[in-house]
Design a protein that fits this description.
Layout: E1 2-3, H1 9-20, E2 28-32, H2 37-49, E3 53-57, H3 64-74, E4 79-82, H4 94-102, E5 107-111, H5 124-140, E6 155-158, H6 159-162, H7 174-181, E7 187-191, H8 206-222, H9 224-252, H10 257-280, H11 289-315, H12 322-345
Parallel strand pairs: 1-2, 2-3, 5-7
Antiparallel strand pairs: 4-6, 5-6
The protein binds guanosine-5'-diphosphate-alpha-D-mannose and manganese (II) ion.
Amino acid sequence: MPTYNELDNPKRLINELMRHLPDETFEVIFVDDSSDARSIEWLCALRETYPFVRVEHRTRERGLGSAVVRGFELSRGDVIAVMDADLQHPVGVLPEMMRALAAGYDVAIPSRFIPGGSDGGLSLPRKLVSFTARWMGRLALKRLRNVSDPTSGYFMVKRAVIDGVSLRPVGWKILIEILARGSYSRILEIPYAFEARALGESKMSLQEQWNYLRHLGRLILDSPEERRVYLFALVGTSGVLVNELLYDVLIHLQMALWTAGALSAFVAMGTNFVLNDRLTWVDARAGQAHRRFLKYVITSLFGIAQSTAVLSVLAYGERVNSLYANIAGIAVSMVWNFYINNFWTWKKKRRVVDIVISPVRTGTKLH
Ligand code: GDD
Ligand code: MN
């Protein structure tokens, strides 16, 4: 449990834990960055009273994500739960999470956003920020796509999920770090109601929202699978520039329009191929380069045929403005090019995303 100036909350939490987990063996690790002397004092008192309480005071480092990672390092159990110390995460869900892991799930995530769950504990502006963050995360990273509450600060994992994985969260959202880098195959979501804070205040800030964006960016860049589609789009844009520049030069050299157009398109196809081969699919190269190039050209030619077809159909009889029609055509062929190249041109078996997320969408009885 990460704590920062939580006053009396940890004590109440310990009472709740003992009430809900009377027969379990557990340790509670507080990784505390408090600046407030009373909060620190109360935590130390807890450690005196309860032998299962451990307190790690940090003075040099601060931050929720790194506090959780520190807790992982110190922990000794086979199962690790992360939760806030301010009672906004109801302790009653813990037994359900433990049953889920015992039933074979690797990760259990209490979710505010499946039937039966609610996020009543957030103010309206925070709900909006949270909504945007969640959707950005799910759009940006494939591994978050089917998780309804990826920005949750409440979850439980088997140790094997994070064992040997280097976790380097940028800000708060340690769960997206684990979902992006961890080794797991089954996740269970359990609905819960996020409670309002009774004591103290939230430490969420604008700085943390910025950190979240940096965090997403870093996770995309660190994964060949996640960054592929962005690199592809970038390479495509560079191809447009190459095409236009060369076209301009050739026209100035008095070349015929048709020849200049075809030549610059072909050269752009070549630079696109080289860049995609060296960047976008650098981990998926197999066999001889000229065979990949041939496949790339064939794919692109079909792509051009498609975009031209879409353009003609849409712009026929001026039903749609021809510029929009052309954009629609380009979009269709880009999707085509990406997928065919991904599964045909660069098809070397690579470590694909190995998860089957099978969220049980309601609180299904596991036993
Ligand atoms: N060690 C440490 N260092 N702990 C921190 C720090 C820090 O810099 N900042 C916050 N914490 C602790 C708080 O003491 C609390 O126990 C927990 O992290 C969550 O902080 P809050 O400030 O209460 O966050 P929140 O309620 O606005 O949002 C939380 O719940 C959401 C729903 O699960 C966070 O966990 C969000 O990430 C989460 O989406
Ligand atoms: Mn809170």
